[in-house]
Amino acid sequence: MKYKLRERFYLGSKLPPKGPIRVIGGGIAGLLTGFFLQQRGYDFEIIERAERPGGLLGTQQLERGLAEQAANGFLWSPEVQALCDALKLPLLAPQPSAKKRFLVRGQKLHRFPLRFLESIVLLGRALWPHRQTLQTASDFGRVYFGDAFAQQVLSPGLAGIYGANADQLSFPGALSPVARMLNRSDFLPLAVWRHRRAQPKAPGGKRPVGTHGFAGGMADLIDALQERLHAHLRLGVDGLQYRDSTDYLILTTPAHVSQHFFSGPLAERLARIAYTPLLSTTVLLERTQLPRFREGFGCLIPRSEGLHSLGVLFNSCIFPQRSRDPKLLSLTAILRQDESYPDLLARSDADIATLLKEDLSRLFGFSGDFAEQAIFRWPRAIPIYSPALYQSWPELDRLLRAQYPQRQLFGNYTGQISVRGMCEAATREIGTA
Ligand SMILES: Cc1cc2nc3c(=O)[nH]c(=O)nc-3n(C[C@H](O)[C@H](O)[C@H](O)COP(=O)(O)OP(=O)(O)OC[C@H]3O[C@@H](n4cnc5c(N)ncnc54)[C@H](O)[C@@H]3O)c2cc1C
Prior knowledge:
Blueprint: E1 21-24, H1 28-39, E2 44-48, E3 59-61, E4 66-68, E5 74-75, H2 78-87, E6 101-105, E7 108-110, H3 116-126, H4 137-145, H5 147-162, H6 171-174, H7 176-182, H8 188-198, E8 211-212, H9 219-229, E9 233-235, E10 248-251, H10 255-258, H11 264-271, E11 275-286, E12 298-300, E13 309-313, H12 315-318, E14 328-336, H13 349-364, E15 372-383, H14 387-403, E16 407-409, H15 419-431
Parallel strand pairs: 1-2, 1-10, 2-9, 6-12, 10-16
Antiparallel strand pairs: 3-4, 5-8, 6-7, 11-14, 11-15, 12-13, 13-14
Helix pairs in contact: 1-9, 1-15, 4-5, 11-14
The structure holds flavin-adenine dinucleotide.
C-alpha cells in the first residue's frame, strides 16, 4: 500500500464493554458519540462548557431569513439518513437551482475554468501513470492534472472545505478517498475502475446526491440531538475539571483544549495542531442588486483572483426559506485571516461589509447596501490537515493506548472534518459494534 489510510477515526483503545463514560465537549462530535452510546445502552454523560450544545454548528434566525454559523449542509450518506430517520428529522435535498457549481477565473463565473491547452495537459497527465508518492494535495493536482488544474480548480475547491491552501494539505490526509483509489493503481483510469468494481451495489437504486440540510438550518440537527440526549447533557460545565479523572473519557473538544488532559509527548503533539481562522458572513440583498448573478450552488475563488472571499454560497438557490422574502437573495461568503488579512477577525462589521461589497461588485455588478447581514468569527475554525497532522495520527493512537487506555480522542482533527464524515465514523465505532 502506497498510502496508509485509517478505517477508524476515534484515536485510542476501543470502548470498554460497559460504562460509565464521560464525553467531554458537546459539539457535533460529542453529540454523535452520545447518540450512539445511548443506542448501545451505555451509562454516560456529555459535559459541555457552553450553555448550548453544537459548538461550531448553529443557525441564527434573521428578520428575513436565517444564517448558518459554520456548516450549511453535508453530503448525503446512508449513515446520515439513518441518524435523521432515528431522530425523525426530515432531510432537505438541494433544489434544482443549486445544480451548477462555479469557479471564478478573470473575476467571472465558469463551470469549467481551464483553457483549451490547459485541458489537453490535464488529459495527457490524467492518462499517464505517476509512480511518485505524493505528499501534499497540491502535488496530486499538479502531477495528475497539471498546474492550471491545481491552481484554478483543486486549490479553491480544497480551500472551500479545509480553509487552507492545497500546498498546506496532506494528500492522503485531505484527499483520502483519492489516495485509497491510487492504492489500487498509479494509473488513474484503472484505479477508478478497480475502485468502482469493488464498491458494493447500493440497495434500492440511485443514492441521493448533493448537499443536504434541514428546513430550519443545522440548528434542527442540534436541537433534535439535544432533545434526544437531554438526560445525559450537562451544559455550562467546564470539562477540564475531569482532567485527572480515572473514569473513561472520550474527548471531543478541539485539540488545543484536549491537550490539557495529557502530559508529555501527547500534550505536545496536540498543542502543535494548527487551526485556520475563518469568518463566515451571510447577507440578504435584493436580487436586482446583482445584475450578473447566475443561479447555482455557489462559486469558489482562487486566491490569485485578488478577491477577499474564498468562496460564496448561493443559499437561497440551495434550500428554501434561507430568505423568507422572495425578492431577497441569501448569500454566504467565507473569508480567511492570513498574510493578506492578518487582522481580519478584529475588523469591524462595517469593514467586513465593505470587503464583501467589493467582491460582489466585481463578480456580479453589486451596488447599494445589504438588507441584513450576520457575521461569525472563528479564531480556530478548522484544523489544518497538514502532512504533520496526517503523520501524527498513528503516533497519537499509539501513545493513547500505551499511556492512557481510559481515554479516546474524536473530533474534526482526528481524520474526518465534515458532519457526514463524523457521523459515519461514530456509526462505525460505536453504533455497529
Ligand atoms: C465556516 C465553516 C464552514 C463549514 N462548513 C461545513 C459544511 O458545509 N459541511 C460540513 O460538513 N462541515 C462544515 N464545516 C466543518 C464542521 O462544521 C466542523 O468540522 C464541525 O462542526 C466540528 O465539530 P466538533 O464537534 O469536532 O468541534 P466543535 O464544534 O468545535 O465542538 C467542540 C465543543 O467542545 C466544547 N468545549 C470546548 N472546551 C470545553 C471544555 N473545557 N469543557 C467542555 N466543553 C468544551 C465547545 O464549546 C464545543 O461545543 C465548516 C466549518 C466552518 C468553521
